[in-house]
Amino acid sequence: MPDIIASDSSESSPLLVVGSVAFDNVITPQAEQERILGGAASYCSFAASYYTQVRMVGVVGNDFGESDLDRLRARGIDLEGVQKDDSGPTFFWKGKYHENFNRRDTSGYSIKCVREIPSRSPRILQRFLICTLGKHPPRPTNACA
Length: 145
What we know:
Structural class: alpha/beta
Order of helices and strands: EEEHEHEEEHE
Strand order of the largest sheet: 5-4-1-8
Distance between the termini: 47 Å
Strand content: 35-45%
Oligomer: single chain
Radius of gyration: 17 Å
Helix content: 10-25%
Shape: globular
């Protein structure tokens, strides 16, 4: 099978990131912060945006505002594949990290807007050679949904 991306290519290939977009409440031994932009797709997109063009696919809820989208856009992340679901709030996760940050406990979550890949995504998916999936259901100790 021939290489899809030439190893001597000076340009990086764009990356499609499919996954959860969330708001997190995080507790650490040093501090507590509420409503942090989180989710696997968000974190992966932010990190990858330093190295290549990124298109993100996910679902956000009725509480996800333009300022939240602007944080992603500020890193050059293409949000064509992000759909807004006005029927409820964005996926929410709350957890506590322990002293060494090697362990964390989920203390609450709400999965109202964790859905399958948005309906318009197949068209987007066809235009990419590289894709990463960052979606998995949380394993809560206490559900607040």
